[in-house]
Specification:
Number of helices: 5
InterPro entries: Anthracycline_SecMetBiosynth (IPR052164), Glyas_Bleomycin-R_OHBP_Dase (IPR029068), Glyas_Fos-R_dOase_dom (IPR004360), VOC_core (IPR037523)
Mean pLDDT: 94
Order of helices and strands: EHEEEEHEEEEHHEEHEEE
Low-confidence stretches: 1-7
Helix content: 10-25%
GO molecular function: hydrolase activity
Organism: Streptomyces caelestis
Strand order of the largest sheet: 2-3-4-1-5-8-7-6
Protein name: Hydrolase
Keywords: Hydrolase
CATH class: Alpha Beta
Number of domains: 1
Number of strands: 14
CATH topology: 2,3-Dihydroxybiphenyl 1,2-Dioxygenase, domain 1
């Protein structure tokens, strides 16, 4: 278990995940049953999910039906404004500029040059995950891209220490979309949650009303299966 300390989150380290859902109450039932999460209300109308008393994710109501139902990963930064400027200079876009999230920190929404969406988190009282790398918590995020060379240049420039520094232990990989998905799938991040048995967890997803996108397959970082919840948000189940 990784305890929550700001020093763990070098700029560019995945530090949080959140789901934008049409029905947060249905999301609480689905993920509560699947992962054993419990929930409490947070600022800005979100719901924080905890595992064994430690924060692991959040759920939020999707206010515009035209927006996708998705899981989004946040990368840590000590200065969201400065990182937004670097992202823009490197060919990405700032979708929503930095804003305070209660007194917990500052958040921003951005894209890379291919349009893959991710968030930035400048933590104040809450640096990030209270638990990760154990069943029912964040384990990995994979960027599926059409151009891995461009992606590696972009993220390598932004997050060099987290990805390649002497103490790097990244939870973030890049791969061509066509490795797993149809070639027409847009570039995107896929959040992975840890499980000791992807096949059994996949069956539980189906029992709860979700569906299987990609059955278990081997990766360089473990055995993964891609599923959606009962509202259409995609995520992966991972045994490392």
């Amino acid at each position: 278990m990784a305890e929550n300390r700001a020093s763990e989150y070098t700029e560019g380290t995945p530090c949080w995940v959140d789901a934008q859902l049409p029905d947060v109450e249905a999301g609480k039932r689905f993920y509560g049953d699947l992962f054993g999460w419990t929930f409490e209300d947070q600022p800005q109308g979100t719901v924080r999910a905890s595992k064994d008393g430690a924060p692991v994710a959040s759920l939020a109501h999707k206010t515009d039906g035209r927006l996708p139902t998705v899981w989004t990963v946040s990368f840590a930064t000590p200065d969201a404004g400065a990182l937004c400027r670097r992202i823009h200079a490197a060919g990405g876009q700032v979708v929503a500029p930095p804003v305070p999230f209660g007194d917990l920190g500052v958040t921003a929404l951005v894209t890379d040059p291919e349009g893959a969406v991710f968030s930035l988190w400048q933590g104040a009282r809450t640096p990030g995950f209270g638990r990760r790398h154990e069943p029912g918590t964040f384990a990995w995020v994979q960027l599926y891209t059409r151009d891995t060379r461009t992606a590696n240049t972009f993220y390598g420039g932004l997050f060099h220490d987290a990805l390649f520094g002497p103490d790097a232990d990244p939870d973030f990989g890049r791969a061509p979309v066509s490795d797993v998905f149809p070639a027409e799938m847009p570039p995107h991040f896929l959040v992975h949650f840890a499980t000791p048995d992807p096949g059994a967890a996949m069956a539980e997803v189906v029992r709860l009303g979700g569906r299987v996108q990609v059955p278990p397959f081997e990766t360089s970082y473990g055995t993964a299966a891609v599923v959606t919840d009962d509202q259409g948000a995609s995520f992966a189940l991972l045994r490392r």
